[in-house]
């Protein structure tokens, strides 16, 4: 990337750099340097985006599924073609290593492909009738209406792509409000849809202060659906606002994923997978494996090997060195949060066996950190760290580990390792989460639903659920006109 893109908004098919509410700085978290400025939408501009989405809905909702499919598939192809350039922007805006950024982008194209196919094959169903008067009972899935899509910074392509593709495939129009610190990444994604032929007004992009914008868009009569990915606290607030206006709401919120490692596990493989995955994206992943519950028989070995792998990770500016394993945290607030988590584990409430401190110099870097046996009531064990901090706890019996794993109100993802087939099935049934991985740490693919339970939200994105989330179910019962 020779230069950071000029950040723009898209309203009714027109790109604009003019933010009537001012601008905000975009900072490279690896250097702390300002790399650009993002326009902030005024209420008038938000209202223009709402009107555009409302006006475009009638035409787009009547566009045939195959035609929507063609446009979305072209958008996915453009995303793949532009992956290298977009990856450079993702790295500059939020510090994701280049290889991980490219993987996110190409994976997002696969998600768009799958949801595009749903537009082609979703036709509803016929239900057999009772008696002789009814001719047919038909169930269809109708586009719900204009949707507001609110996304965070940690996956600035994947999360908007899921929401945009689900909404547009179903026949909805949309307004995307991405995170204010990754605006250009979202802009380049939206440009793929525009260049693929999405009509004006069908997809709109606005930037600005997240709270006021979300509240304005959700309260607007035009809005019929809200999809939000972010923190549990914000999700509860926005959910209450959506409910007060009877708006459909899909929240994908925080997590604090447990990993149970049985004495029957392949320890070497479990350690390698857990250490590599935990520090992906500097631990800033909602489904990041975080609380490692390890059988006492293998606990010491697991701790030593996990800490050794964490200590070997190369941390640095991924924009300057593509070989780094872990980049920066998103902003200075995340550094402060990590410091507090580690400090709470001192004084006999845990043992820091790797890392544990911020890295001096420019940017927002924190060492890959491992805490052995953190106290049950510690901040680490009770609050989502959302950073490069792992905790390892020993257990005597499997049911004890399951109880600890299920002991929080979070329920996004959970994992377990065991070579015993009966034990593996038992763990899959017993872990309370929307997604469970056994002997692997991947719980997301284009074909599968992604979502949690409890304080991690409800509803799903991805898979057929990612399409149906933007539809209303309609029943039509057709009877004979004459007896």
Describe the 3D structure.
The chain is α/β, with parallel strands linked by helices and 483 residues long. It has 2 domains: 9-253 and 457-475, Aldehyde Dehydrogenase, Chain A, domain 1, CATH 3.40.605.10; 257-446, Aldehyde Dehydrogenase, Chain A, domain 2. The protein contains 15 helices and 19 strands. The chain has a 7-stranded mixed beta sheet, with helices on both faces. A hairpin with a 6-residue loop joins β5 and β6 (134-143). The mean pLDDT is 96.
pLDDT below 50 for ≥5 consecutive residues: which ranges?
Answer: none
Query: What is the CATH topology assignment of the largest domain?
Result: Aldehyde Dehydrogenase, Chain A, domain 1
Structural class: alpha/beta
Biggest sheet layout = 7 strands, mixed
Across the major sheet, the strand order is 14-15-16-13-12-17-18
Q: Averaged pLDDT, please? A: 96
Total helical segments: 15
User: Shape from CA axes?
Assistant: globular
Number of domains: 2
CATH class of the largest domain: Alpha Beta
Percent strand: 15-25%
Helix content: 25-40%
The radius of gyration over CA amounts to 23 Å
Number of strands: 19
* CATH superfamily descriptor of the largest domain: Aldehyde Dehydrogenase, Chain A, domain 1
At CATH's second level, what is the architecture of the largest domain? Answer: 3-Layer(aba) Sandwich
